[in-house]
Amino acid sequence: MSDLFKTAPKEVTRYFDSKGSVPTFDWRDIAPDEHAFTFTVAKTAGFDVLDDIHDELARAVRDQVPFEEFRQSLTPTLQKKGWWGRAIATDPKTGVPDIVQLGSPHRLKTIYWANTRTAYAAGEWERTQRNKAFLPFILYQRTIARDPRDEHLGFVGIVLPVEHPFWETHYPPNGWGCECTVRQISRREAIALGWSEDQEEPVVVFENWKNKRTGKTEKVPRGIDPGWAQNPGKNRAKNVSSFLSDRVAALPGNRRTAAIEDIVGSPLLKAMYEKPKKGMFLPIAPVRQDLAQALGAEPSFVRLSSDSLQHMINERKERGLTLEDMSSALTVAANPEAAIPLKSKKGFTYLGEANGKKWRLVVKAVTNVRSGETEWWLNSFHRKTRKEIDRIVRRAERDGTLLK
Predict the structure, then answer these.
(1) Long-range contacts: 295-298, Cβ < 8 Å, 24+?
(2) Residues spanned by the domain of 194
(3) Is residue 167 part of a domain?
(4) What integer pLDDT is reported at residue 183 of this predicted model?
(5) Do 227 and 296 fall into the same domain?
(6) Are residues 86 and 31 in the same domain?
(7) Nearest to 14 by CA among 109, 124, 112
(8) What pLDDT, on a 0 to 100 scale, did the predictor assign at position 152?
(9) pLDDT at residue 29, as a whole number
(10) Is residue 243 in a domain?
(11) Nearest to 121 by CA among 253, 47, 257, 15
């Protein structure tokens, strides 16, 4: 275990700690890209054990706990809660009861292995991104497994740039129990190992695999186990914005509001400010239906981009505004005391108070060229005095544009 985490412990623990728990009946209930964001264990639906398993795994990652200690610490809790041995459980998707394997030493070993290995892979990928300026290539190395898979041996010796699409699907682990590794190398070593700019691309053959749980047919690279054809670290960085916004958009109103509040209150906002990624954004507030209808648009949620966040904070540093002020101001976007349509009729000025401070926010409605849908974006925020807020409200009342 010490060898597993010695390379990038902070990156590894950050990846695992940020996962949300999602109970499932079958591992196929979670799509591959969602595994980069969610922690799940099959057959936990209906049992109050998922957080117990997550907490023990988080401790194992953080404190380099070996498997035997992990097993001995967790087993009594699972047995006490009835998640142990074989039992009859009802599949929530089909409603059909079945005899299933719950907890067991073998299952705990699989859970431990899968989660520590993917956390390690995500941490290594983050370190790879940090070092790619002087180590711009990745070498697929021979597995240390006693009984290696022939398909995985076929990947050994492949040398490709860090950003090559091959690593989106073939960055190890590439299946249950896979012990393959990669090594980040310099351009000089890559050339010495035979890499050249005009070399042939590795042949990746995709095969159809039908997910019997969802009924969907998925393309899986030959030699990669279903559910493992994804780079956990790259998926997390690449898809965090679309993942969150898609999931939030699919929630009913009250749950959408709760989810957005959780996002704003989580470390994600701070992370987006401190380590911005181009194109990244977060949903920060639902758009009230009456306000959307006033502009003839569909209600959705307000987004905040990393570029806008940095600009707004940096622009107002001389005023002593902090990221904490920003978080406070975002609560006004979720529940404004008053809203005034912009002269362009493409957005609103929001007015409100949070934590004893008065705020004026500008939210703009933009049409997505590709989808044709209206997207709402936070464009700016300003501290105001009560006198200034009252003056803006009186003017809007006089003009007949004030919405409450």
Answers:
(1) 295/341, 295/345, 295/346, 295/347, 295/365, 297/365, 297/374, 298/373, 298/374
(2) 2-204+223-234
(3) yes
(4) 96
(5) no
(6) yes
(7) 124
(8) 94
(9) 37
(10) no
(11) 15
Using the structure block, give the residue that is written with the tokens 């695992």. 16
State how far the alpha carbon of 123 is from the alpha carbons of 19, 21, 58, 305, 384, in Å.
Answer: 14, 19, 14, 25, 43
Three-state secondary-structure class, residue 32: helix
- The pair of three-digit structure tokens given for residue 324, joined into one six-digit string: 């904490």
Q: Do 299 and 343 belong together in one domain?
A: yes
Whole-angstrom distance, CA of residue 149 vs CA of residue 382:
60
The residue written with tokens 């920003």 in the block is: 326
* 91 and 193 within one domain: yes
Compute the distance between CA of residue 360 and CA of residue 363 in angstroms, rounded to an integer: 10
Please report, in tens digits, the pLDDT of each residue of the chain (404 residues total).
444 444 335 555 555 554 444 444 333 334 444 443 444 455 445 456 777 887 888 888 778 888 999 899 989 988 887 878 777 766 656 666 777 667 788 888 888 887 788 878 877 887 888 899 999 999 999 888 888 899 999 999 999 999 898 998 899 988 888 889 999 999 999 999 999 999 989 989 988 887 776 677 888 899 998 878 878 766 554 444 554 555 555 555 565 566 666 666 666 677 677 666 666 777 777 777 788 788 777 767 788 887 787 777 676 665 666 777 777 778 888 778 888 888 887 888 899 888 788 889 898 888 876 667 788 888 888 888 888 988 988 898 888 887 77
* Interior/surface letters 254-277, b for 16+ CB within 10 angstroms, e for the rest: eebbebbbebbeeebbebbbeeee
> Among positive and negative, which fits the CA dihedral 277, 125, 64, 18?
positive
Whether residues 286 and 367 fall in one domain: yes
Alpha carbon 101 to its chain's center: 29
Q: Are residues 186 and 104 in the same domain?
A: yes
Q: List, in sequence order, every residue forming a beta bridge with 159; answer none if it has no partner.
A: 139
Question: Are residues 59 and 175 located together in one domain of the fold?
Answer: yes
Q: CA-CA distances (angstroms) from residue 149 to 107, 143, 228, 315, 328?
A: 22, 9, 15, 55, 53
- Domain assignment present for residue 211? The answer is no
Distance in angstroms (rounded) separating the CA atoms of residues 354 and 334: 11
Q: Which pTM does this prediction carry?
A: 0.53
128/262 same-domain check: no
Residue with tokens 């493992």: 228
Domain membership of residue 130 (yes or no) is: yes
Structural domains counted in the chain: 2
Asked if 113 and 123 count as a contact pair (C-beta separation under 8 A), the reply is no
156, 238, 241 from 235: Cα distances, Å: 23, 5, 11
Amino acid identity, residue 317? Answer: K
Extract the tokens encoding 298: 């569909």
